[in-house]
Design a protein that fits this description.
This protein is an alpha/beta fold and 302 residues long. 23% of the residues lie in helices and 29% in strands. The strands form 5 sheets. Strands 1, 2, 5, 6, 7, 8 and 19 form a 7-stranded mixed β-sheet that branches. A 5-stranded parallel β-sheet has the order 10-17-11-12-13. It binds flavin-adenine dinucleotide (FAD). Flavin-adenine dinucleotide binds next to helix 1, helix 4 and helix 6.
Length: 302
């Protein structure tokens, strides 16, 4: 029986783990990966103390900090179910079963899928959800970035140095991403922007060769060898059924990171806290760990 199990090792989970370790409570971190979305970010220019750092570099620094402590860490392990039974929180994973007095859910978000023909077939054969990870594969090629928010703009900007031509396909009439990124995208000669345009199919043979797009009644074929799907994120909250969530599936928390179930806490992008940023997730993670510390004392189990 651990004092606390932390699900996820992104900025929120890692920071929660560091704070919990410094309070000397027994803890286990279970995560599919280390770094979370931070490791997928391109250039990070808004994490306090760093005027500029790449996402993978920042994630590495987080990991280094985490590993300074003697923390139980289960990597490459996925949580499948969390349940509270009496005073114990039971965590079932794809590899085992664990118990704790408290749990912090810091499982973040994942990419939303397009849901068009060809998406599944060409995943990793020209179609990807991560410009940071896969961008270099498309050196000198024509590519499409699907989306109009920060993730899409960030992907397009990362691809400027790599791809030959970048088409941004945006279903709405304007971008929703930050003005700084909009300005870069609209000023760059390599980038063409197609607003009010929908992708209806991904096509090719062994790998992607073209996409079908639709603007009103006008259908067109756009030859591209790379497709970056950047249409938003969904919270990784399916494995916890009993807590209250909002209509987006984000776990509802109060300012102490408490969920609707005593003993279950949540932090970072998986919660309904507005704005999804590394610095916010890290701050929420620290807050959650401090609340857990107090919870354990009040429940006389520490
Ligand atoms: C392309 C891109 C660029 C970005 N750029 C910036 C930027 O410049 N500045 C900025 O501040 N923010 C940026 N962000 C947002 C930022 O990365 C996130 O807000 C932040 O990483 C959220 O941290 P988190 O710990 O809550 O979740 P995540 O980073 O999503 O981490 C979640 C963790 O939980 C694990 N996990 C998920 N499900 C399970 C499960 N079932 N079992 C076990 N483990 C699980 C994951 O493997 C991961 O380790 C960017 C995001 C993206 C995608």
């Amino acid at each position: 029986m651990f004092d606390v199990i932390i699900v996820g090792a992104g900025p929120a989970g890692i920071t929660a783990a560091i704070y919990a370790a410094r309070k000397k409570i027994s803890l286990l971190v279970i995560s599919k990966d280390i770094g979370g979305q931070a490791a997928l970010s391109g250039d990070v220019e808004n994490y306090t103390g760093y005027q500029f750092i790449s996402g993978p570099e920042l994630a590495f620094k987080f990991e280094e900090h985490l590993r300074k402590f003697d923390i139980g860490l289960k990597e490459n392990e996925a949580v499948e179910e969390i349940k509270k039974i009496n005073n114990s929180i039971q965590v079932k994973t794809d590899k085992g079963f664990y118990e704790a007095r408290a749990v912090i859910v810091a499982s973040g978000k994942r990419s939303r899928e397009l849901g068009v023909p060809g998406e599944k077939e060409f995943k990793n054969h020209g179609l990807t959800y991560c410009a940071t990870c896969d961008g270099p594969i498309f050196s000198g090629k024509d590519v499409a970035v699907i989306g109009g928010g920060n993730s899409a703009l960030d992907a397009a900007i990362q691809l400027i140095k790599i791809a030959n031509k970048i088409h941004i396909i945006n279903i709405t009439s304007d971008f929703t991403g930050d003005q700084v990124m909009r300005d870069i995208v609209t000023a760059n000669q390599k980038i063409t922007v197609l607003h009010n345009t929908q992708v209806t199919a991904i096509e090719g043979s062994k790998a992607v060769t073209e996409i079908k797009i639709k603007n009103g009644n006008k259908e067109e074929i756009l030859p591209v060898e790379g497709v970056f799907v950047e249409i938003g994120l969904i919270p990784n909250s399916e494995f916890i059924k009993d807590v209250e969530k909002n209509k987006l599936g984000e776990i509802k928390v109060n300012s102490y990171n408490e969920t609707s179930i005593p003993g279950i806490f949540a932090a970072g992008d998986v919660t309904d806290v507005p704005e999804k940023q590394i610095v916010i997730a890290a701050g929420e993670g620290s807050k959650a760990a401090l609340t857990v510390f107090r919870y354990l004392i009040h429940n006389q189990v520490s």
